[in-house]
Amino acid sequence: MGIYERLGVPVLINGQGTVTRIGGSIMAPEVLEAMAEASRNFVDIVELNDAIGREIACIMRTEAALVTAGSADAILLATAGILTGTDPGKIRRLPDTTGMKNQVITHKCQRHVYDHSVRAAGAQLVEIGMNDRTFPWELEQAINDQTAAVFYTIAPRLRSGALPFPEVVEIAHRRGIPVYVDAASMLPPAESLWRWTEAGADLVIFSGGKGLMGPQSSGILAGKKDLIAAARLNHAPFHSIGRTAKVCREEMAGLLVALERYVQRDHQADYAHWTAQAGYITNAVNTLGLPGVQGSVVFDEDIGTCPNAVITIDAAKFGRSAYEVRQKVEGGVPRIILGFNPMPETCREIVVNPHMLQAGETEVVAQRIVGALKG
């Protein structure tokens, strides 16, 4: 009897992608073997993170890197390092930032739940722009003698309206202000590993347990050597603000192997496979010829993430809403979790992200959707 069966926790078919709530991703045997090997001996954790950081930095074409306890922890450590530098007095005081430069500028259209990690370090967020547009002068005027950094987010489903990244870097760097980027979920494409630092980011953040398919509770903070050194002093095992989010030696080893495997993958073949999976599902839907129901494969050309199968349902023509159909799809056995849906009761779409579908599951998802539409 497997562990999940013994505990009475049902396993899921993951049509939502690399989402933390349902486990992120599935690690390769080589990653698990590296973790098991690392568990058999003791090492100095700081020395290990430094050594693995050098390997990661080489792969990511940047100065330095640090393994963190997920991307939210990387945001916290990046912010902390920017606020404190390597000053031990400031490090010990966080999240009290009295007397420090503690303002971090962010776009209103890029606000998200993870900017709590910025505030947790003791920073004060300063918004610029509106939901649908931002002007360069707004960033210029927001910078003052209390500005510590600019925080920029790259992610699927964010509202448009932010300043172009090169323009943010130009304005901030001209005023001596660092820019750090949350790109946690931006793998694929593999080029994201070096795209943002090559474009001028001082620090960049990635999740280790999403596209990299490493340990779910790991992350990467990479960028300028001095800022990584400052972030490291705010990290476990030191007794500083990051002590609550330590990374074990097994996760460090697993993340490195996952990253090494990731850059060696045939990414074009991966993308073609996901496209074929999404096409299989939408073709199965379109073959039904139901009024008000249309399946399509949707690509995000700007950020290059995994193509999705999107089934659009006109409730007035079809007689049932996308929400009702989705509930039927997800409520069967085995359980299926479908793609992101911000407003389920009013959304007109059912989304399937094929990124984490395992062998044979594409057919199961297609059959379940077809059955729900028919019934």
Describe this structure in words.
With 375 residues, the chain is of the alpha/beta class. The protein folds into two domains: 3-20 and 266-374, Aspartate Aminotransferase, domain 1 (Alpha-Beta Complex), CATH 3.90.1150.110; 42-264, 3-Layer(aba) Sandwich (Aspartate Aminotransferase, domain 2), CATH 3.40.640.10. Helix content is 41%, strand content 15%. It has helices at 3-7, 29-38, 45-60, 71-84, 88-93, 116-120, 136-142, 165-174, 192-198, 225-233, 249-264, 267-286, 315-318, 322-330, 361-374, and strands spanning 12-14, 64-68, 103-107, 124-128, 147-153, 179-182, 203-207, 219-223, 293-298, 308-313, 335-337, 349-352. The strands form three sheets. It has a seven-stranded mixed sheet, sandwiched between helices. It has a three-stranded antiparallel sheet with strand order 9-10-12. A two-stranded parallel sheet has the order 1-11. Strand 3 (103-107), helix 6 (116-120) and strand 4 form a beta-alpha-beta unit. Helix 4 packs across helix 10 (225-233), helix 12 packs parallel to helix 15 (361-374) and helix 14 (322-330) packs across helix 15. It is globular. The relative contact order is 0.16.
